[in-house]
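Q: Got a minute? One more chain.
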Amino acid sequence: MSSFSYYQPTRIHFGFGKLEEVGRIVSRYGKRALLVTVPPFPALEPVFEKTKRLLRESGVEVAHFDQVIPNPTTESISQGTEMARDFHADVVVGLGGGSSIDTAKAIALEVTHEGTAWEYRLFGERKITGEVLPIIAIPTTSGTGSQVTAVSVLTNPKERCKSAIVDLHLFPKEAIVDPELVMSLPPHLTASTGFDAFAHAFESYVHVNANPYTDLLALEAMRLVIRFLPPLLHNPTDRRAREHMAWADTLAGLSIANCGTTLPHGIGMAIGGKAPWVMHGEALAVVYPEFLRYTAPYALERFAAVARMFRPELLGEKDEIAALALEEIMNTFLKEIGMWFGLEDLRIPREDLPGIVEDTFKLPDYSVNPRVPTKEDVFALLESAYSRR
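A: Always. Here it is, folded:
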């Protein structure tokens, strides 16, 4: 067994009805909370109002920043930072999908540091200190894992570039994972975030720095997604399936928090920077068949193990046969969950492909893939993924 370190400072409150504890939890960290969400809409507005009521009943004053956008930008984060400063917030509560939680993390950083959050991204000029405001995370999707990671993803629209801030100070102090909050999630968003959870688990499992602890988490997360995501799309009100997907999301987040992601996430981030209308899960799904074909020969045992989770009949086959079957298995799975498309379907201009390649290499994900690609390799993957016709 290899030696390893594992760190997870986030206290997790998991289960139906756990939102009721938000006032007690937040009040331990501050008395002036900035609540960070997307603009109100029918499915979640009651949750926003309930959260504010519970906070106020616990003696916590609330300012509500409700201008989070998908693929959060430097501008939207600075908007929230301005509100946090004017309100003198001493704790930040991210309530929503990954965009809301990532925005909350970036605001908690920017309000206490000089410059903008963008300057603290990976390979940026500035260093993060312990002055980051306490962060409480409450997910309303099952897939991003942001509630238990030290990562905030953000986009600089002027540079058309998506990057990440990664620092231990960005771990949420506490996470409230209440499956009740994802019961109204639409099918395609369920599929997109659910595939993101699978990708987190798979990539941490095949990561060159995988360890026995993250393997346990990743394998269970993948098992749950494989079992519960497809039927959930046919019966969105299945409470048991929602609960298991919320747990899969959390396990996968714990995996990447201590291991990381590989090539697909680097490419997916680059796609998001050039095409902010593309959901993160979509940006992953569109390159997964090519990634599997490209990487499988360099991680046969692990690819084979995942293939056998989908198809137990492969237990009698050699690792090479099972591993190389995973691409076809994944193609079937993506079609089953409505995530089968090419870059062309996502309205990615072909002329953006060279820029996506360049941005892929601005993040370290490619370097920890079992097979380390060249820029020519990544361009070939994108060309192959352009059209599924």
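A: The chain has a mean pLDDT of 97.
Q: Perfect, thanks.
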